Structures are given as structure tokens and as C-alpha cells.
User: What shape does this take?
Amino acid sequence: MQVHFSTDDLPPRDRVRFWCDYFAKQAHSITPGEIPDPGAFRAEAGGQVAGEFALLDIETGLERVRRTAADVARDKTEAFFIRRFRRPLIWRAAPRSTLVDLIHEPGDFCVSSTEWRFDAESKGAASFGLLVIPQGALSPLLAGGRLARPFRLPGASPLGSLLGTAVDAAKAQAPLLPDKLGEAVLRNLCGLVALACGASDEGAEQGRVSLRSAQFAAVERHVDLHLADPGLTPASAAGALGISVRQLHRLFEPSGSSFARYVLRQRLLRCRDTIAGATGTGRSVIDIAFGWGFNSMATFYRAFASEFGGATAVLRTASRRED
Assistant: This one.
């Protein structure tokens, strides 16, 4: 289910209170810090809620937020929270012994749960993505069933990069699916989070499944970004993604395809759409094919006919008739 909330249409005096109430409903209770100009305050949230999972984008003028003991006591539902910050932020968590200061840069993840108090201070208006995972979905996958403490996962680390790719893929997929399937997409992220947190035996197994899924999504994204490059090869892709060529090929084994066949099909689809579309008007087939990374017209024509059962001229003639 898609959700959206904005304070823009609320009376200025009510905005902070309504925002805190909304955030408590979607995630957890918070206590706002001092706001220099409450009348200028604005906040907005939007994203996907599926079952007890949520994947939201948050923009809020609260530069400082606390989660107090009273906030913890107020919340009756327990959950885990994975934030990905878009602006620098200092997160001071209050564990049972010593304080934990986590300094986050844009792209970093902060992993916490309902039980922890904290004091967060953003450099400017806070902006972050938020993944809410119900306790029952993640606890069985964690060693000891809980977080030993909140922690930072650098966005540039191998696991952070894969988690970011998986979250981005979930943001794109979940809104297109029925709620149950959308929930399954978000649940699949639990394995990666468990690997980051310290997985139990069950979590390690699910983590391997989630890791494979995230790696494949990273390959798809890399191909999409470099499809027009004739130099896109298994070796270049594996090197850019930090995996071996053998690992890259193994990712395609369950589909019965291969990296080369996947790249070829994506190029053919782009060529077909360009030839039949408005952007292809006035462009030669040779120009289009070379523009999408082909370096042999004989290879292109043969592959095109095999994939779509016809010549490019037939496709272009049919598209003109439809116009």
C-alpha cells in the first residue's frame, strides 16, 4: 500500500505535533529538539507499507530528535529500523553501559531497534530512507535474537553497497506488486540485515539467499548503466562489482541463462524500442545498433531476427502504420 503524508496543508502550530504522531504510527515515538521557527517547519514521508513492513523516504525539518525512556515505554510494538542517511548526522545511542557515538556520512546505514534510546543531530534538515522490519521477522535471524547495540554500516562497504542496491530495487518493485508480494520483497531484505548485524545459523542461510539476490540486482543495475558500452564484458562487470568472473556466471545459473545472453537480450530490447519509437525516427538501424553497444551488424541482424522473429524493416514499417 502506498502512503504519503505532508505537513504542508496543516496549520503551522500543529505541524510538529502531527508529524511526531505520524512518525510514531509508522515507526516509533520521538521527542523533537528545539525548533527555531516552528511556523516554517515542514515534513514529508512517502513510500510503501506492506503488512508490518514499511519502506519510506523521510524529509523533516527536525534537525535534532531524541528518543527518550518515555518514548520507549510508550511504544507497544517492537521493530527494527534501518535508516539510510542522505545528509551527515551524529547518532548518539544510549545503551545500558556506555554511550555509542555513530557519525554517519551520506549513504551510510544506521541499524537500531525499538528498545534503544538515542539523540540524533543532523547537519540541516534530516533526510533519510527508513526500512521498518517487524521484530518477528528479523529476531530469529540474529545471533541471540536481538541487537547487541545500534551500529553504523558504511554505505561504501561491500555489504552496505549490496544493501543499498537491494533497498533501491525493493523501492522500485514493491509499489508494482500486491501487498503480499510487496511484503515478500521487503522480507527478503532481512537476510542482508541479519548478515550485517550478526546472523544466527538460520539467518546466515537466509542471508546467503538475500546476498545472491542483491548481487544479481547489482549486476542488473551495472548492465543497465553500461549497456551502450561495447566493452561491457563479464570481466569488466565482475571487476566493477568486486566479485570474481566465476561468481558472476554462477549468479545466472538458476535462470538457465548467462551474462552474455542477458546483455544481448537487453541490447536487443533497447534497439527494438528505439527503432519502433519516436526517438528512432530519422536514425538508421546501424546508428541505433552501434549506439546500444553492438560492434557487428551481421551479429545484430542475426540476433534480432532470432529474438523477435522478423527483420528490423518490418518493425519500422509497422510502427509507421500505427502512427
The first strand starts at residue 2 and ends at 6. Residues 201-226 form the longest helix (26 residues). The chain has 13 helices and twelve strands. Residues 2-226 form a domain with the Jelly Rolls fold (CATH 2.60.120.10).
